Amino acid sequence: MSRLGSRVLLLVPLVLGISLLSVMAAGSYTTFLPIVGHVVEWGPTATPWFTYTPPFTYTPPISPTFTVSIPTLTPPSTVSPSYIRILDNHSSYTSAFAQHIVGEVENLAPYPIKNVFIRADLYNAAGEVVHTSVGPVLLHRVESNKKACFNIPLPREATWDRYELHVVGAVGPTKPYPRLTLYNLQPGISVYGTFQLTGTVRNDEPTSVRTVIVVATLYNLQGNVIDCARTASPVYYPELAPGASWNFTVLSGRPGAVPVRYAVIADGVY
Question: Does a structural domain hold residue 128?
Answer without folding.
Answer: yes
